[in-house]
Amino acid sequence: MKNPLIRRLPRELAADWHKYLVIIVFMIVMIGVISGMYVGHDSMLAAVYANRDELDLEDGCFELSEEAEPELLEDIASGKMAYVRQYFIDKGTEEADKEVAEAVEEELEKQVTAAIEDAVRQQCAAYGITDEEMIQEQIDTALEEGFDEALDEAKNSAEFKEAEAEAYEEAHKAVTEAVDEEWDEIADRYSLEDEGFTPVPVRIYENFYREEAEDDDNDGKSDANVRIYLSGAGIDRASFLEGRGPGNENEIAIDRLHAENLGVKPGDSISIGGKSFEVSGLLSYVNYLTLHEKNTDLMFDSFGFDVAMVTPEGFDRLSSRIHYNYSYIYEKETSDKTELADMSENFLKVLITQSLVYDNEIKDYLPEYLRQASNFAPGDIESDTAATGILCYILIGVIAFIFAITISNTIDKEASVIGTLRASGYKKSELVVHYMSMPLIVTLAGAVLGNIFGYTFFRDVAVNLYYQSYSMPACGTVWSKTALVKTTLIPLFLMFFVNLIVIVNKLQLSPLRFLRHDLGRKKRSKAVRLPAWSFMRRFRLRILLQNLPNYAILIFGVIFIELMMSFAFGLPDSLNNYSDSAGGMLFADYQYMLMDSKDSDGNIIETSEESAERFSSKNLMYPKDVDVMFEGMGSGGDEGVTVYGIAKDSSYISLGDHGEGEVYLSSAFAKKFGLKEGDRITLKEEYENRSYTFSVKGTVDYDGGIAVFMGNDRFNALFDRDPEEFSGYFSRKEINDIDEQDIAVVITAEDITKVTTQLFHSVGGAIDVFKYALIVLAAALIYLLAKIIIERNEHAISMVKILGFENGEIASLYILPTAMLVVLFAAVSVFIGYALMGWVFKLFIMQMDGYFEFYMKNSSMVLSVVYLLAGYALVSVIDLFRIKKIPLDVALKNVE
Amino acid sequence: MSDTLLEINNLKKSFGTGEAKQDVLRGMSFTVAKGEFCVLLGPSGSGKSTLLNIIGGIDTPDSGYVSIGGDRLEDMSEKQLTLYRRKHLGYVFQMYNLIPNLNVKENIEVGAYLADNPLDVEEVINTLGLQEHKYKYPNQLSGGQQQRVSIGRAVVKNPDILMCDEPTGALDYKTSKEILALIEDCNRKYGNTIIMVTHNEAIRFMADHVIRLRDGVVRHNDLNETKTPASELEW
């Protein structure tokens, strides 16, 4: 026989549909949003990584000043370094030989001429000829007749040959010395004589481009710089999100995001370098997922920069200079970062030496793994999962809480039934299964529906958020293991175990105690004597005291709600706060990072700007040495630390006296890792097996980054640099007298603000989704909590109704105390929620690189309480109706 | 009716400690024979419900023992006790304790589900006169009808012992008599041993065996020579 209790389930669902509807909506929204985010992340990343192979993403690229000869490309492809030293010697010797030969010839001619002249003069003197004119005539005749013979004779003389050989020897020696000197410097600079060099064979592809001004609205003003590549390239290909590639010389395909930002659609005409092109399609280049114009740009610019594709004929229509850009792919495949770094370092040596011997010049070199335009977006998407992760864990906590109180409430309500069933011989296990069925069915239904929404609607929301920020390729929907585990399996397991623990724990009580409704663990305490207040006040207070366990649940619920509100309001506030204070976080109004402290001629880069001050910097890693609390959140690996060498008596950063091995930390570094004066820290090189241990001397008030400061002299000594070496300039004013070629990047407050604005633009959409989802979830939670309090008092409310109390009076007895407590709890919980969120945020930041503080505006705090109270006010109205609907016979009939 | 089914031996039970200690059972002993209709009669506080709960295995004595069919309850684990209740006992409470979202028939099936050889549910419904109410929910029934369902849930298991705790305590005179008649019928028809706790003196006339309790001890232990049918009882 089938257990007849099963038939209760659909009826219970129907009878309490509003409660279960709220729970299911809660589950669907929670699972849907989080699953959608994960599926969106995973789908996008899957598309990005799949495209890397399908669209032949390069392993790096280099640009030469002139088109490379086939032999040069062949030699570069071999992956071997050219013998630059010998090349220079040969070249120098050849030139020297030429010069020596010319000099010797000239000298010999001079000497032969002089000898002939002397001989003629002597003969004339012997004949008594003194007329200079006649003598000169005789000399000219003698030179004309005998010069060549005399020259040949001189050349064949042993004396001449000896002198000539000496001259050559001396010249060759000079060439070798000069080359050696030059070579030593180059070899030193690029470590060309490194014994660890291993050849890096590559396949090379032409990937030429032009850069032109793009006028999207044909108003004659340039809207963007566009980098135009050729169609049919065998590398770094594009996928088309709309339309198609260019089919003739008048067509162009441009970046999809740029087009959308500027309102350009396929079929529109735009002007490129003054020539009109029709947009044939919108594309996403595999190596331009973000529109970084220069790799050193702090942030991409999808408005002011564009990438495009034209046919070779279309390319010829344009007139700007061709950038002879070549892309390469390593013959040996690897994804190991250290190995890639080694290979790119070795390849640079190949490039330098080979281009030198072919008299070509490298204009640019960029290994793919360092390319911002293709790596920024995937990295950012991966870090986005962190915020989703936090939300997920908060909501799982809330779900566990909801089910714990719901099931506990159900058992309390059904005490007599449970007692009777147990007394009749029902086993505990049968009752456990019975009481667990409904919450599990509800969770399962919520999980299934949530995932359906997650894989459809919310996935689209997440994917669209990325399309708004990045030039992403078209993406399908992939199966997300993380989504399944975090949004479905964990809540289901949680649900299962929370219910199991609560039910098993409750069912430990004897059937008799269930029959007597004696479910409390503690013995009843004596009744509290109340002051001589009015009857209604005392009655209200009695109800309040009697409901203390319910109010304990309520305060937990309110704390959860405020935690969710802190997330909803605090995250945008924190981002805004960081953005607002970013400008003030810079050491200097301008921070110039140079390519090197010397220019290409080997001269130290100087400036006449008076406020400029040299500094040095270097990036090291700080091992986090913390357990990864939340798998899948952020890197969890080592923290990047910028080590600064600061000038003595700096006017930008004031460091106190510090001995060898002592450093100052940025306040962000100290706060993030809880470091203080006297602590020791060990920083290590990212790609080398070297580490440095420092003692913390103090902190510098700088929240902008994870940084370490020391004197510049100590810096140079520690990192084996020349005493005069430096990395850049701090300045209060713009520096105009440094060649742009020598500047790697300039950081100003505007750049930092741009970064945070873009960051906000990127994650802002996701935060809004979270915010509204959390407000819906908070409303659902307060509804459930208020419902539970009324349900638990149903019997008593029915009784006071029988006694003749009016609904208004009952509301003042049962709703008013709850309302007062909700206000009180909300006022307290807003701070607890804030503190909890601060703690959760810190855990989250520990998994991420960098630092920014959790911040919530006072107005947001007030607003979070207002939202809660407004939600509760609405629920109170529903409660009033609930009280009206409680029938009188609840107290009379023993209908459980 | 000479086979002893139930033996109660020197049962003691108290609640509270120190000054508040209250001895509810103070050495109670008696036996009940198989198929007997036994009434435990006594005023409020005499310990009759506590005694019933101990017999039902949902409460334990401080000392003494209960033996059913030779098996002592004190030797049974919690699991065995559950099995004992499941296979041998039926319970009827003063406050019915029906499952609100199961209808009459289903509430009776809750009992049938537990038994290896349950009675036919439809037949029990007919016997209890609930045919026309079988698809109603408990809150659509009167108190008497609810108690019938409660009896149905207990007897459908065809239990060895039917435990009735003040089954008419919440019912009016007429309905009480109907309920008593039903229990009487069940006893006759299905041969269940009935142990009924009541404070209603009149009910003793319909029993085979009357045990009077007061202050936690057995004051009288009598067997009725003649029984009065429930329908003829007056109080």
Structure keywords:
heterodimer, A: alpha+beta, nine-stranded mixed β-sheet, six-stranded mixed β-barrel, 24 helices, B: 235 residues, alpha/beta, six-stranded mixed β-sheet, globular
How does this structure look, described?
The complex is a heterodimer of chains A (896) and B (235). Chain A is an alpha+beta fold and 896 residues long. Chain A has 24 helices and 20 strands. In chain A, the strands form two sheets. A nine-stranded mixed beta sheet of chain A has the order 16-17-15-18-14-13-19-12-20. Chain A has a six-stranded mixed barrel with strand order 3-4-9-6-8-7. Chain B contains six helices and ten strands, in the order βββαββαβαααβαβββ. Chain B has helices at 48-55, 78-88, 104-112, 121-127, 143-155, 173-190, and strands spanning 4-15, 22-33, 37-41, 63-68, 71-72, 89-92, 161-165, 193-198, 209-214, 217-223. In chain B, α3 packs parallel to α5 and α5 packs parallel to α6. Chains A and B meet through α1, α11 and α15 of A and α2, β6, α3 and α5 of B.
What would you report as the Rg of chain B, rounded to the nearest angstrom? 17 Å
Q: Please identify which CATH superfamily of chain B we are dealing with.
A: P-loop containing nucleotide triphosphate hydrolases
Mean pLDDT of chain A comes to 84
Enter the CATH topology name of chain B.
Rossmann fold
Name the poorly predicted regions of chain B.
Answer: none
Main beta-sheet annotation of chain B = 6 strands, mixed
Instruction: Indicate the radius of gyration of chain A in whole angstroms.
Output: 41 Å
* Strand residue content of chain B: 25-35%
Report the total helices of chain A: 24
State the strand order across the main sheet of chain A. 16-17-15-18-14-13-19-12-20
Unreliable spans of chain A are 626-636
Arithmetic mean pLDDT of chain B: 88
The total domain count of chain B is 1
Greatest interface by residues involved = A-B, 31 and 39 residues
* Shape designation of chain B: globular
Distance between the termini of chain A: 25 Å
Pairing-aware structural class of the strands and helices of chain A? alpha+beta
Q: Which structural class matches the secondary elements of chain B?
A: alpha/beta
